[in-house]
Structures are given as structure tokens and as C-alpha cells.
Specification:
By secondary structure, the chain is α+β, with helices and mostly antiparallel strands. The chain is built from 5 helices and 7 strands; from the N terminus they run αβββαβββααβα. It has one domain: OB fold (Dihydrolipoamide Acetyltransferase, E2P) (Beta Barrel), CATH 2.40.50. The longest helix has 13 residues.
Length: 166
């Protein structure tokens, strides 16, 4: 079981906060350690809230348990993500903070609205959340819920909230 965390926790702990589209996914061993499976993900950066400037950002995540044998299902070329990542370790490894709580998928629904939710929210919750209201109230969304938005303005509001809370 993973301890639930909220957006404030994610934002404060993250050295890298990035929104982007997955450009490349490679499954390979950790350099120098052939028995440690990893996935290396390269994003085309859409918005670097915190972290190094540039058009792409690459991180490497260790694969553990059943994922090590089958490959992590969470990263697909073309997928849009919003990630909260720590600084890479001395081995170059960096996984989303709070396990899957720091990895949000951005998807466009049939009506054209964007849905932004982390892995736990997609399984546990479909409630909506107003980032403008959260920012004014200095509160955080429910720890296990994603949010839905219908416009680019709300998305900018959410990223502004993240920037101001760090």
C-alpha cells in the first residue's frame, strides 16, 4: 500500500515538474548493472514548470516486480503526461513522486474536454476539481482524485497554482 499524497506534497518534493508528450520509450538494463531493468522515457516538453530548459527531457525509471518482466505499461509513445519527479539519483534513476501519484495522464475525451488524472485517481475517482478555487483557498485537491478541465485557461490556472505553491 502507498501512502496517499496531495498536490502540495508533490509540488514541494519535485525537482522536476514537466508536461510533455512521450517521444521515445526504451527498455534496457541500467548501464553497468545488467540485472537491473529500467525504462528510459524521452518527452517532448510542452511546459517545464520546474527543471532544466530544453525541448526534450529524458528520465530513467527502475522496473520492479512483474513490471520488470513485462515492461511498464505506463509510458506509450504519443501519450501526454504531467510529471512530478525528484532529481535523478547518483545512478541516473528518477521515478514519479508517490509512485504513480506523481504521474498524471492528459487525455482528450469524446466531448473535447481534457481529463488529467493520476493512476490512483483513474481507478478510484472521477470527481471534478476547480483549480482556480483551490488556488484562492490555498487548499489542495483530494489526494486520490484527478481533475477534469474543459479549457486551456483551467490548465494554465493549474500550472500557475503549482508554480505559486512551491
Amino acid at each position: 500500500m502507498v501512502l496517499p499524497v496531495n498536490l502540495t506534497y508533490l509540488a514541494r518534493r519535485a525537482a522536476i515538474i514537466v508536461q510533455g508528450r512521450v517521444a521515445e520509450v526504451r527498455y534496457e538494463s541500467l548501464p553497468g548493472y545488467s540485472n537491473i531493468p529500467t525504462v528510459e522515457v524521452t518527452l517532448n516538453v510542452e511546459n517545464m514548470v520546474r527543471g532544466p530548459e530544453g525541448g526534450t527531457y529524458t528520465f530513467r525509471e527502475i522496473l520492479m516486480g512483474p513490471q520488470a518482466k513485462t515492461g511498464k505499461q505506463g509510458y506509450l509513445v504519443g501519450q501526454r503526461l504531467f510529471l512530478f519527479l525528484p532529481a535523478p539519483s547518483q545512478y541516473g534513476l528518477s521515478s514519479p513522486i508517490g509512485i504513480e501519484q506523481g504521474r498524471f495522464r492528459i487525455a482528450r475525451g469524446p466531448s473535447g474536454s481534457e481529463t488529467v488524472a493520476n493512476e490512483l485517481a483513474m481507478r478510484a475517482c472521477s470527481r471534478t476539481w476547480s483549480w482556480t478555487r483551490a488556488r484562492r483557498a490555498h487548499s489542495s485537491p483530494p489526494s486520490s482524485c484527478g481533475w477534469r478541465q474543459s479549457s486551456a485557461a483551467r490548465w494554465r490556472s493549474m500550472t500557475s497554482y503549482l508554480w505559486s505553491s512551491t
